Amino acid sequence: MNLILKKVGTSGPLPTISYDAYDGDRKIGEAQLRLKEGGRPSLPENMKSHVYYEVAKEYEGKGYGTQILGLIKEEARKEGMHELLLIAAEKNLASNAIIRKNGGEYLWDYVSPEGERDLKYKLSL
Ligand SMILES: CC(C)(COP(=O)(O)OP(=O)(O)OC[C@H]1O[C@@H](n2cnc3c(N)ncnc32)[C@H](O)[C@@H]1OP(=O)(O)O)[C@@H](O)C(=O)NCCC(=O)NCCS
Fold first, then answer.
1. Mean per-residue pLDDT for 19-36?
2. 97 C-alpha to center of ligand 1: Å?
3. Is 100 in the pocket of ligand 1 (CB under 6 A)?
4. Quick one: which of 21, 45, 111, 117 could link to 90 by a disulfide (CB 3.0–4.6 Å)?
5. Which ligand 1 atom is the nearest neighbour of the CA of 55?
6. CA dihedral 97, 102, 52, 50 (to 10 degrees)
């Protein structure tokens, strides 16, 4: 496995840098790095975050998600960032594992009016 991130563009006010993740010539997923915390408008300010990533269904469970976050850490360092703030839905066990394996420290959580719990993490770079 030789995963790389290819920058596909920068957009929006934060701004947000978008990447495609490739293993060789196969695109296996995508990621976004927000240089300032952002996220769904429905989230309170203390649940905004810097990172989003996803792995295509057929490539899940092979360690790609863990590697993508590792590569995003390198990109964030290159951008001069010193920490990443991340959130993961409590029920998203894989995403919580990815963040913890990359050194994420649990900060606090938030339960939406619909009863969905998100966990917030800090990851020092
Ligand atoms: C979450 C997501 C990125 C995981 O990607 P992935 O490539 O399958 O993750 P990995 O293979 O690196 O697995 C990470 C860890 O989660 C664990 N894991 C994977 N699926 C799991 C599941 N359904 N239940 C419990 N643990 C799971 C793995 O065992 C691994 O831990 P380990 O190395 O200690 O064994 C992928 O499922 C996805 O794109 N989901 C939709 C988008 C999303 O939720 N993005 C995250 C936003 S916060």
1. 97
2. 7
3. no
4. 117
5. 39
6. 130
